[in-house]
């Protein structure tokens, strides 16, 4: 009797668990935005510092590799477009703990570090001061009004960098707002390097807003490669090149887009 009752229960439990993977979003975009703001503005320990790309979270080797790999991608794009291999005025959207800044700031004349976390912008600026005299301007991003963080920068930047951020946004609308901000701050001819996490034909690779944002933040928002290309065109930037990283030490399915402002 007990076996007859428990076996169907187990089957039902597993069926529900598998089926839940294919259910529509379980959290609204507004709810996810609030959860994202709570998560990124509160320090949760080593895991949080790793996700925010702090030196103390990633470790020396990985922390340096993050910035060096992104500088190589940027310079690959710049060479293809016959642009200088160094930025002049650069805005990094989602600077974290400075893994990219310590590589880019020494070859820039002005570095603008924007992040949801004031702790991260302060850490980023401190790491830059330790390696070079390039001035760092800290700007805090309010997820409800992100454009305010770029106030006064219209058409001033020749370089816009945004990596490991899009996949953690509350949804595609918020992700595309970042592209609009890039379009607004870039000078004509300026270069934006924006990385997205792409999904494939496998439904499990698609981003979903979950109630447990903190545990799966890096799989919240994804795009098809052609989908993001077309959406960027609608906003007014020109997609020129894509660099794919199917897998690295942090995660996988990364697409780096080189976008220029006409």
UniProtKB/TrEMBL annotation:
Any GO molecular function: methyltransferase activity
SUPFAM superfamilies listed in its UniProt record: S-adenosyl-L-methionine-dependent methyltransferases
Pfam families: Methyltransf_12
Record domain Methyltransferase type: where: 91-191
Annotated CDD domains: AdoMet_MTases (cd02440)
InterPro entries documented for this protein: Methyltransf_12 (IPR013217), SAM-dependent_MTases_sf (IPR029063)
Keywords (A to Z) from UniProt: Methyltransferase, Transferase
Superkingdom, taxonomy of origin: Bacteria
Protein name, per record: Class I SAM-dependent methyltransferase
UniProt source species: Mycolicibacter acidiphilus
